[in-house]
Structure formats: C-alpha cells, structure tokens
Amino acid sequence: MSPFSFVPLAQQPIPGADVASSSLPTQGEVPIPSSHSHLHLTGKHSGVPCPKCTTETQFADAMGVSVLACPACLGFLSQGKDFSRIVTVARSHYRGQDTIRPLDHSQLRVARTCPTCHQPFETHAYAGPGTTVLDSCQRCGTVWLDGGELERIIQAPGRR
Ligand SMILES: [Zn+2]
Ligand SMILES: [Zn+2]
C-alpha cells in the first residue's frame, strides 16, 4: 500500500507548514552570523518599516532591552540611551578576540529616513568603540544600526 493512499483529509495542507519547511536552511548553507546571537525576534509585528529594506520590523530583545528589529536585514531600531545600554552589556559579556575592522566610508553617504517620525537620519561614525556607522534621528532619538554592526562594536578593542 502506498504511503500516499490516505483519505484526502490527511493530505490537506497544514496552514503555515510550507512556509516553515521552505525557510529551513539548506545543507551546507552558512548560518547567519550577524546580529542573531544578540537579537531575539518575537515575531510580533511593529507596523514600523525597516529604514534600510522596508520590511516590517518586529519587536525584539537585545541584551534585555526592547528594540525593533528587521527580520530581513537584521538591523535594529532603538532609542539612543537604550542603544548605549545594549552596547555596554554586550561588550561586558563578550569573551572573544578583539577585532579591528576598517570603517566602510561608503556607509556614511547612505541617506535614510527615520521610520518613526519621517525626519532624515543623521549618518555618522559611532563615537564609541569600533569603526561603525550609525544613523540617528535628532527629533525622536531613534538610532538605526545595520545588521552585523553590533558585532563590530562588541568585538572592537577597548574598555569592557
Ligand atoms: Zn531591513
Ligand atoms: Zn525620528
């Protein structure tokens, strides 16, 4: 007897099952190394688009701080003071090698808009450890960090 000769009911697709199986990484694919270890997405939609790729961001946790993270590019939005806390906590927990990476100057020319209040972001080099470009909104204090950039800040040499 064929394993597929069940009554039609058993062949009904389970909603969401296809999505789950197709999103599984294929064999040999390199796992996403960027913000995944420090960002925990809740799957709860925020209604706020990603300023980089326009995907809707989700509520997420970064080192115990509530942020809005993009599930596609893994960048995240936070408030300035919260961002400082994330950096402080993440750096104090880091036990790996210090790594210096050169600043990507092309990043400084990227013009983006604050998705919260629609003001243009100010793009500048992050003043703390690491060579990282940060977008911040003067009006509402929102800070945008690209996916993987938090790791650069965490791994940069300096006081922990
Ligand atoms: Zn994005
Ligand atoms: Zn803003």
List keywords for this structure.
binds zinc ion, 160 residues, 24% strand
Molecular structure report:
- The protein is an alpha+beta fold.
- It has one domain (33-155).
- 17% of the residues lie in helices and 24% in strands.
- It is built from three helices and seven strands; from the N terminus they run H-E-E-E-E-H-E-E-E-H.
- It has helices at 17-22, 80-93, 149-155, and strands spanning 39-49, 56-62, 65-69, 76-79, 122-125, 133-136, 142-145.
- Strand 3 (65-69) and strand 4 (76-79) form a beta hairpin.
- The relative contact order is 0.16.
- The structure holds zinc ion (ZN) (2 copies).
- One zinc ion is lined by residues 114, 116-117, 119, 137, 139-140, 142.
Question: How are strands sequenced across the largest beta sheet?
Answer: 1-2-3-4-7-6-5
SS field, number of helical segments: 3
First-to-last CA distance: 65 Å
Bound molecules: zinc ion
The gross shape turns out to be: globular
Class per helix and strand makeup:
alpha+beta
Q: Look at the structure and give the mean pLDDT.
A: 82
Radius of gyration: 20 Å
Number of domains: 1
Strand content: 15-25%
- Name the helix and strand elements from N-terminus to C-terminus, one letter apiece: HEEEEHEEEH
Helicity level, as a percent range? 10-25%
| Parts with pLDDT < 50 across at least 5 consecutive residues | 17-35
Task: Please give the number of β-strands.
Answer: 7
Query: Mind describing the biggest β-sheet?
Result: 7 strands, antiparallel
